[in-house]
């Protein structure tokens, strides 16, 4: 038999398992979970990440204790399930159907479901147990489905013993069940077809849903186990678990039992563990959570006609890029599109930050910890997400403490007597390509960099218009106050894009504060580098800050574009700033 089971006795559950890792053979009743899993949990077994998806799902079904898998319905939700730490995915038929705007009544063909599953399997390394409804027809349809699922590394399929086309279990009473012999033939056909011995077929018993009672459910469970099912789901739409628990006691775990407590969700998980549930499925909650979140967002936008309140409540845009692994493509482009633009970065991190007292005695402020990572490490991680590898970090004070993988460190030995412009001038070749320039003490949300990268101008800065509100909350660097061509309250009227008019101290009618992030195109980088060299020749470079350089460029007719951003960043100048950053960022 392709499922790897060999009958050695008269009892239908008397089977033999040969463990590939240990070579041991265990003979005993199929329901004896300790016997059945000796080889799977041997110290000589391969680690979980070395096992196939098929074997990993089989372990979830047959291993000790109770395991949990989470619903997903597309590639994105599959990634989120893996990100959350679950060991497996339930590809819900209800959720996949609903996400595509159709009913859970086999209105999707099995090939359409297969297309969704392929994206899910590619997106996640987790084993997937798919809700296969009734198997999409008779035994012949089902065995073809099994073959195609295995080709896409789908680890298992759950089929329910109702007639095709199915009706969702929670919608109608007196649902029509399949004949036992017909359903057993379907299970046998699947087991005989599966190309991988560890592919799992889970038989879902709908007798309780149809009002047929415990005895009918047990009769069907016996038959399905004998036909070769690897596990059974006992399903109920009652709000209490009594009939489920009664079944589990009578069944006595002869093959693994899977529970889906959607309706009896108030039941303590420990109760289900005590009933020896092998696997618990959280069956449709990602879909339902997304429906509520989308409704809330739509209602807010319909009512308020502004993104101001919505933006803080939704996932940052950069999360979308991260989940889609955009950085991998960017790295691949560097290899395969050698002629494509390269993005550099320069982080100005030479100063101590004396206002931070003893915290910067042995390290510069760029290395201070903010929620588990240094300020510099957070910047390097954010830069990597937009395709920057090995950013240039201009160190100075306690430069030996600037010890971080994935950076190119340049030391400004004269940090004590020079300013930011002199440090920037040391960046060398970084100022010959597209470049992001950052203060080393700025904590910001990663999506700030995406805003900069979307623009094509030679010079682009980010400006916070809410600087007056922040004045009471934290220290402000008065050198970075700016006046723009378009004030914040007029910047979204579809007219002129804001650009820098003036920057520095004592700016009359300031429109905001420069965040400390500057993007230059390759052409802009060359212009900036040339301006720094002119300042060196003039003798004005040593004491200049970046604002001075930008002001010179503006006076020479260069346009420094500006993007308004509100909040989501912190310039760490003193202890209060650091505390605010640790709380809010």
Automatic annotation (TrEMBL):
InterPro entries the record matches? ICL/PEPM (IPR039556), MobA-like_NTP_Trfase (IPR025877), Nucleotide-diphossugar_trans (IPR029044), PEnolPyrv_PMutase_core (IPR012698), Pyrv/PenolPyrv_kinase-like_dom (IPR015813), Pyrv_kinase-like_dom_sf (IPR040442)
Question: Keyword set for this entry?
Answer: Isomerase, Magnesium, Pyruvate
Residue ranges of every copy of the MobA-like NTP transferase domain listed in the record? 345-464
Select a single GO molecular function from the record's annotations and give it. phosphoenolpyruvate mutase activity
Q: What is its EC number?
A: 5.4.2.9
Task: Identify which top EC class this enzyme belongs to.
Answer: isomerase
Task: Please list every transmembrane segment annotated in the UniProt record, as residue ranges.
Answer: none
* Domain of life the protein comes from: Bacteria
Could you tell me which SUPFAM superfamilies the record lists for this protein? Nucleotide-diphospho-sugar transferases, Phosphoenolpyruvate/pyruvate domain
Query: Gene3D superfamilies of this UniProt entry?
Result: Phosphoenolpyruvate-binding domains, Spore Coat Polysaccharide Biosynthesis Protein SpsA, Chain A
Family that this chain belongs to: Belongs to the isocitrate lyase/PEP mutase superfamily. PEP mutase family.
Q: Which named protein is this?
A: phosphoenolpyruvate mutase
* Record organism: Stappia sediminis
Q: Point out the gene that encodes the protein.
A: aepX
